[in-house]
Amino acid sequence: MATPTEHQDKKGFLNFIEKWGNRLPDPFFIFVYLAVFVVLLSWLVSSLGTTVVHPGTGEELAIQNIVSGEGIRYILAETINNFTGFAPLGLVLVMMLGIGLAERVGLMETAIKKSILNAPKSLITYAVIFTGIMGNLASDAAFILVPPLAAMVFASVGRHPLAGLAAGFAGTGAGFTANILVTGTDALLSGISTEAARAIDDTIVVTPVDNWYFMSASVIVMAIVGAIITEKLIEPRLGKYTGRADNTFEPVTKQENKGLLNAVIAGAIYVGLIALLVFLPDSPVRNEDGGIIPSPFLSGIVPIILFFFITVAVAYGITVKKITESKDVPAYMGDAIKDMSGYIVLIFAAAQFINYFNWSNLGIWLAVNSAEFLTSINMTGLPVMVGFSVLAALLNLLIFSGSAQWALMAPIFIPMFMLLDYHPAFVQLAFRIADSSTNIITPLNPYILIVLAFMREYDKKAGLGTLISMMLPYSLIFFGVWLVMMVIFALTGLPIGPGISLRM
């Protein structure tokens, strides 16, 4: 295995990205500066007497000057409402109450270890990738748990531990957006998409399940693709490992196994009760025609998922004695919300920027003019969506936070694509596959340094270049396969979620 020198680590395109990306302000201040920019732009454009015709109502709208008396009154009156009424805030915090509880009592860690350690030798690679992808239920904790565990499992069966580490990091990072279950990522991004779509149609709601079919299929496809990359490209390049693998891992205990079984039983009972409620005659969670697309069931999917995670977490926690009294449950939930403090602060600034953008009518003005330009050059087909996805992938090299990047891009691109008759949930999908694929090669990913530290336990000379070169095939192939999947879903009319396809 070629080991990069110190000189190589300090030069090259990736170092250029790292150097300039590190010079970007914190995402909070990016949105503060953008809000100020929108204020000044609204003054400039409104002073030119610019108007735009709303494509939905046909009403002629003037660009509203935020520097005016009316604009200042808007800022003072709506700052709090902009924050508390921002759709992603409540969605994500509610989801984290359940997912955070499951993570705090140890259910996520046990499920991840059980998935990898019990896999047959011939299926270990697939199990690692699959577990890494599903690990995003534990949010960023999966970055710290899955790669080193995968490396130790590979070493224990005589395979190169760095191949295991690469597979674990690829599944966790490049596959971060996919899952069979609905996760906090779905709630977060759909909330931002809904806010952005309101610039065109305030009745449209992008729900957390609007990308569910596509993302569920992606788990299986990417597990297979990731395993093939590991076994056909990465492992042969690494060669035979001759070092020592002194690391050990704690096996799943009998009590944890019992807790996992009880969690599965509790979860199955809960799902059965929900299914019974859905399929009851004249069910209150079905629509007036008896269907579920749309329905109160889909619009209320977040609390349904919340109570699912609370149910399985409590069953596991009581069994392993992490929950011994009722007050333990809100205490663990409180700890989970503490970890969201940085996100809450970021959302305050992002909410102001997006709402200023919409109130000033700059968002719809930019969307209408961009859509008209693309129409004039006949760029309204699927290639423009592919191009958008490529742009999102490149931007992710400079803005690692998916929520921050989507909060930046959604107000511009969702209205524009809606005017071209693309569904906002499909635009969101094009962003998600790009953002996820490049997670593992951007030096701005804070977990890259952690994975590099794990890597050096097996190769003392490994550097950032070693890690990036090892992860690049996963990033490029994952993105390419996802683009092909997106095009197939679009051309065949397959729904990417309940009742959701390419066009509105």
UniProtKB/TrEMBL annotation:
It comes from Planococcus plakortidis. The chain crosses the membrane at residues 28-45, 83-102, 123-146, 212-230, 260-280, 300-319, 340-359, 379-399, 406-425, 437-455, 476-496. This is p-aminobenzoyl-glutamate transporter. GO terms for biological process: p-aminobenzoyl-glutamate transmembrane transport. Keywords: Membrane, Transmembrane, Transmembrane helix. InterPro entries: AbgT. GO terms for molecular function: secondary active p-aminobenzoyl-glutamate transmembrane transporter activity.
